[in-house]
Amino acid sequence: MILEALLAVTFAAALLVFAAPDEYAPKLAFGLSLLPIAGSLYLWSAFETGGNALTGGEIAFNTVVPWLEVAGYQLQWYVGLDGISLPLVILTTFLTSLAIVSAWTPIDDRKSQFYGLMLLMEANLIGVFTALDFFLWFVFWEAVLVPMYFLIGIWGGPRRKYAAIKFFVYTNIASLVMFIGFMMLVIGLPVNSFGLPEITQSLAAGELGNFFWLPSETLALVAFAAMFIGFAVKVPVVPVHTWLPDAHVEAPTPVSVMLAGVLLKMGTYALLRFNYTMLPAQAEYFAVPIAIIAVVSVIYGAMLALAQEDLKRIVAYSSVSSMGYVLLGLVAFTEFGLGGATFQMIAHGLISGLMFMAVGVIYNATHTRLVGDMSGLADRMPIAVWILVAGAFAYMGLPLMAGFAGEFFIFVGSFGSTVLPYAPVFTAVAMFGIVIVAGYLLRAMQGTLFGPFNLETDYDLDRAPIHDVAPLVALLAAIIVLGVVPSLFFDMIRDATVPLLELLGGGAP
Amino acid sequence: MSLLLQGTATDWVFSVRALLPVVLLALTGLVVFGINSLRPDGRDNKLLALTSIAGTLSALGVAIWYLLAGTGQPTHGGAISLFSGAIIVDGLGLFFTAIFTSVATLVIAASYDYFETDANPASFYSLLLLATTAMGLMAVSNSLATVFVSLEMASLPSYALVAYLKDNRGSVEAGLKYFLIGAVSSAVLAFGISLVYAATGSLLLPDIAAQIGSVGDLNGVLGVGIVMVAGGVAFKTASVPFHFWAPEAYEGAPAPVSAFLSSASKAAGFAVGFRVFATAFQPALDIGIDWGLLFGILAVVTMVLGNFAAATQTEVKRMLAYSSIGHAGYALIGLAAITAGASATNATVMGAAMAHLFVYGFMNTGAFLFIAMVERWGVGRTFEDYAGLAERAPMASLAMAVFMFSLAGLPLFGGFLSKYVLFLGAINAGFWWLAAVGAVTSALSLFYYSRVVKALWLEDATTDLDAIGDAPTGLYAAVIVAGVVTVLLLPGFGPVIETAEAAAAALFA
C-alpha cells in the first residue's frame, strides 16, 4: 500500500496547490513536495533487492487489484518496484522538489497552476516508474504529457506555443506507434492480462503465436521496431530529436530541469523494460543499426551542441549526446552495459538538471543566454558560476563524479559485448564524443564566465538569491556522492539487470 | 391500434411497468404542456426546467434500476415482449434509454440558462422531452412499423428544435435543410421497409429473420430493401452518405440542441441499427447480402471524411459537427463487425460500440454545452475568438480540455477505453482494417481537438472578455458534471462495458 500512499499524497498535494492562492503556492508546493521525498527514501530504506520485476524476480511493495475486463483481457491496478525503477522514483521526487525551488525566481504568473502542474507531473512520473500493468503504465505515460504541454505552452518563451504543440504531437504519434506495436505483440500471445511480468515471461517461454498472416518471427521484429520508434522519440535519438531543442529553449528553467532530468528517462526506461527485457533476441537482431543510431546520436548531438550560441541549446543538444551513451549501453546487453545505462539515466538526470538550473540562475540575473552577450561572469556571481563549472566537468566525465561512473560502466560494458558485432569500434567512436563534449563546454565556459566582465544588456547584476543557489548545491552534492559511491544505486541496479543476461544465455561481463 | 386494445387490465399495468422510463418521459412532456396551458403568460422557466429534469432523471433512475435488477435480460427471464412483439424491453433498450436520458438531463440543465430570455420556454422543454420519449421507443422497437413511427416521432420535434431560434436565419435555414434531407431519407426508409415486407411478408424483426431463408428469387428485392433501411440508419446517425445535414444543422441550431442531436439522436439511430440488423437481417448474410461490407465501407468513408473535414474548419462548433460525423464512423464499426459469425465476438464488438456511444454521450454533450456557454457570453465562433478564455473561466475551460482530449482518445479519460475496446473487438472479429483506419483517424483527430485546448489555455485573449463575469448555474453545472463523468469513466469503465456486452450478447443468443 505504500506506493499507493505515495501516489495519493502526490496527487493530493497537486490538488491542494491548485486550490491555494498564488502568493502561498511556491512555498506550499515545496513543503508538500518533501512528502514524496520522504516516501521515496522510506521505500529505499525498506527495499530489499530481489532480481528483475519482469523476469520473475521479486516485486517489492507490489499490489494487484483487478480493474476491468475487456475482450478477454484483465486490466489491473498493478504497481511494484525493483532495482531499476526505485532509483528513478527517488530521482523523480528529489528533482521535482529542487525544480520547484528553482521556479521561485523566474515564475511570477499563475503560480498556483504552475506548481500544481509540476506536482501533477511528478505524480504521473512516479506512476510511470511503478506501474507493472501495461494499461495502467500507458495511462500514466500519456498523463505526463498533458502537464508538460501546459507548462511549456503557458510559461514558456516567445515561441512557446509552437514548441508545446511540436512536443505534444511528436510524442503522441510516437505513443501511438508504440501502442500498436505492443498490442500486436499481446494479441499474438496466449495471455489474458496486460501484466508486464506475465507478458515478459510468456515471451521468454516462446509462446508467441501468429498475428493474422504475420508469422511469429516477423511479428516480434515488427513489434520491436514499432516500440523502438515510439520510445526513441521520447529519448530522443537522432533523427527524431528535433522537438527537444525547441521544447528546451522555450520551456522555463524548472520545466527544462524536469524534461531533461526525468522525462527523457521515461524513453530509456521503457526501452529497457519493453524492448530489451521482452524481446532480447530481436534486440540482438537489430543490434548494429541501433548501435549506429546510438553512436550517431553521441557524435552528431555533440557536434550540434558545438555549433550553438544559446547556453540552453548547448545543454539541450548535449542531452541528445548523453542519451546516445545510454542507448549504446542497452545495445551492448552486458552486465555493465545494461547496469551502466541505467546508472547513467540517474547520473544524467542529476547533471543535466544541474546544468539547466545553473544556466537558469545566470539567465535570471543577466536576461540573456547567448554566449556572445556576456563574459567574465565569474567575478560577479562566483558561487553560481563555480557550480556551473563543476557541472560541466561532471558532464565531461570527471572521475569521482556521477557522470564518470555512468559512462565508464557503459564503455566497459559495450567494449566487451558479445551481442554487438564490432563492439570495440562502436565504443571507440562513442568515446570520441567525450572530446567534443569537453570542447563545447570549455568553449562556452571560457566565453561567458571568464575574462573581463562585460554584459551586453543593461541589467543590474546582483548576487543570486540563496534559494536559487541552494538547489544547485544539493544537486552537486548528490552528483559527487554518487560519483564516489556509485554502489549506492549500482548494486540494486545490477541486481535487477543481471537476470536479463540469462535471456540471451548469459553474456560477457 | 387494435394491438393496444387486446390486452387485459393486468397486461396494461405490466406494459406500463416494463416501459416505465419511456412513460415517465412522455408524462413529463405532458406535465410541461399542462403547466404552460394553466399559466400561458407566466414565464416559469425555473419550474419548467426543474420539472423536466425531474422527469429525465427519474426515467434515468428507472432505466439504471432495471439494468441492475436484470429486467428483460437473460438472467431474469429474457426480453419482455409487448404489444404482440412490436415492442421489446431488454438490456439494449434500457442501456440506450440511459444514454438518452443522461444527455437530455444535461441539455435541459444547460437550456435553463441558454433560453433564459426566451418568450416561451415551455415549448422547448416539451419538444425536447417528446423527442427523448420517441428515442426511448426507437430503442425498444421490435418491428419495422414501430421503428418507422418512432423514428418519425423523434425527427419531427428535432426539426422544430433546430429551427427554434425563429429570428435567427442560420437556425431556420438549418432546420429547413435538416427537414428536407430528413424527409428524403424517411421516404427511402419507408420504401426499404416496404421492399423488405414484400420479400419476407412480415414487419416483426424476428419473423423477418425467420423468413429470410425462404425468400428465394426475391433476394434481390430484399437486398435493395436492406440497403435502403441502412440508408435510414445512416441519416439518423449522421453517417455518410446521409450526413450532409449534420454540419449545417449542428452549426445553425442553438448549441444545446446541437448537443442533444449529436449525442442522443445519433445514439438512437444506432439503437435502431443494432437491433434491426442484429435481429432481423443477420440471416441475410447467408444468402449473399453482405451488409457488413456495406457498413464497413461506410464506416471507413465516414471516419475519414468526418476527421479530415473537422481538421480544416475555422469555427469550433462546425469542427465539433464534423468530429461528430467521425465518431459515427467509429460506432459504425460496431455494425460492420457483427457479421463475423461467432456470437461472442459479435457481442464484444457491438457492446464496445454501445459503450463508446455511452461515453460519447457525456464528452460530446459537454463539449457542445461549453459552446452553448460561449454563445451565451457572445464571444464569437472561431478558434481565435476562444483565445484566452481559460483566464476568465478556468473550471469550464478545464472541463472543455477534458472533453477534447477524451474525444481524441488520449488515455486519460473514458473516451480512450471505449475506442480501444471497439478497435480490439474489430480486430478479434477479423476487421483489422477498420481498426487500422480508426486508429489512424483517431490520431489525426488529436490535431484539431488540441487546437481548441491551445486556444483556450495557451493563446492570449484577442477580444474583450469582460462580459464573462457571470457564471450561469445550469450551464456550469451541466458542463462540470459531464466533465467529471468523462474522467470517472476511465476507472469506472468496467460496469459500462459489462452491461453493454451483456445487452449485446442477448441479441445474438
UniProtKB/TrEMBL annotation, chain A:
Residues 131-420 form the NADH:quinone oxidoreductase/Mrp antiporter transmembrane domain. It is a multi-pass membrane protein. One of its GO terms (molecular function) is NADH dehydrogenase (ubiquinone) activity. Its main location: membrane. GO terms for biological process: ATP synthesis coupled electron transport; electron transport coupled proton transport. It is found in: Membrane. It comes from the Archaea. GO terms for cellular component: membrane. The chain crosses the membrane at residues 29-47, 84-107, 114-132, 138-155, 167-191, 211-233, 254-274, 286-307, 314-333, 345-363, 383-402, 422-442, 469-490. Pfam families: Proton_antipo_M (PF00361). Keywords: Membrane, Transmembrane, Transmembrane helix. Belongs to the complex I subunit 4 family. This is Oxidoreductase. It comes from Halonotius aquaticus.
Automatic annotation (TrEMBL), chain B:
NCBIfam families: NDH_I_N (TIGR01770). The keyword Phosphoprotein does not apply. This is NADH-quinone oxidoreductase subunit N. Signal peptide: none annotated. It is found in: Membrane. It comes from the Archaea. One of its GO terms (biological process) is ATP synthesis coupled electron transport. One of its GO terms (molecular function) is NADH dehydrogenase (ubiquinone) activity. One of its GO terms (cellular component) is membrane. The chain crosses the membrane at residues 12-35, 47-68, 80-110, 122-141, 147-166, 178-200, 220-246, 291-312, 319-342, 354-374, 395-418, 430-449. Residues 141-445 form the NADH:quinone oxidoreductase/Mrp antiporter transmembrane domain. Keywords: Membrane, Transmembrane, Transmembrane helix. It comes from Halonotius aquaticus. It is a multi-pass membrane protein. It holds the Pfam family Proton_antipo_M. The keyword Transmembrane helix applies.
